[in-house]
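Lecture notes, unit on protein representations.

Consider one protein chain, 413 amino acids long.
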Amino acid sequence: MGLLRDGDFRRLWAADVISQVGTGVSALAVPLLAVTVLDATGFEVALLRFGQTVAFLLIGLQVGVWCDRLRCRPLLVLADLGRFLALLSVPVTAYLGVLTLGQLYAVVLVVGTLTVVFDIAHPSYVPRLVARDHLVEANTKLQLNRSAAAIAAPTLAGALVQWVSAPAALLVDACTYLWSALWLRSIRAAEEPPVVERRRMWPEVREGLAVVFGHPVLRAIGCHGFTFALFQSAHLAVVVVFLVRDLHLTPAVIGLLGSTGLCGAVSAALLTGRLTAWLGGARLMWVSGVACGVTFPLFPLTTPGWGLVTYVVATFGTSFGIICLSVLAVSYRQAVCPPHVLGRVNATSHVLVWGAIPLGSLLGGVLSTALGLRGTLAVAAAGVLLSSLWLVLSPLRGLRDLPAAPGVPVAGG
């Protein structure tokens, strides 16, 4: 049980576990809704993913400053409530028969903006709730939520879309955000407001950038994250359209394929601690990056029938590597960054990854027009493979374990 014996961490965990399932449901339900109900093109579906993530480019760094200045738990609660209301509008208007693609763009933009606030505040809040010597355990348990949700959500989403409706699937997601807000609100431990010297925002933003790009390990992790996310997003922008229109799969089969392959995520969450002890955190990090790179090219090789096995293998290998990288990278940042700059470091890291996603979504849309869907998947696979070089050629290659420095140098800190 470990940390789950602690009532407040258990509430944080309970808030996270169902919310992750809902988020996974909408990740599949939104493009399926656009394709099957609103008859969207591949480029229009790519624009939806652009709208979901463009806020990271626009406000991600500023949100990091807010997280260093403010208490994070109220930000988490407000973000959840806002996402609940925004998503609730989709099944309501669909029931009334007035849902449009324009409204769906607006909803994903609002939800995406609030997700920026939540996703940057959450890893900044964990060290305020959990002792530093329990951070790897805390992040592993939270990552296990994401991994379990990654398996359950696609099957649930596919079943809901095929047998009920896509708007009903988004209603499920909306309710999970309400669930999360109520659990987060029930945490009893007081979160003290950070004691920081208030300065102008952009000097503080630059301080967070300087920490990430001035530290060789953080820089390698960030550059890999940007490159990987750019090409993975180009893949994700069109893969549902590819499965529906090129392979003629039903929503339920698409969901089942995703759930089967994403068993790799749960396996990684369960094994990351043991693999770190056996192989070393530094080695495991770059090996995980290579594992993602060498399995991703199987996606464009997917064909109907038994050829779907390649899709499952690619999803398994990629999800395994992503989860290992995520656990190690988040724990490393939380361990080495001084508390007064952690929000900005988290924001910089999130912006590098999530800021690449809208750019990759546009890239996927453009490539799908020029090269077709399978050609787009092939280009994306090549990019993901090349992204692993950031880790292989970094100082990680000469290390066994990740350095456990007491803190990274901070300009002016």
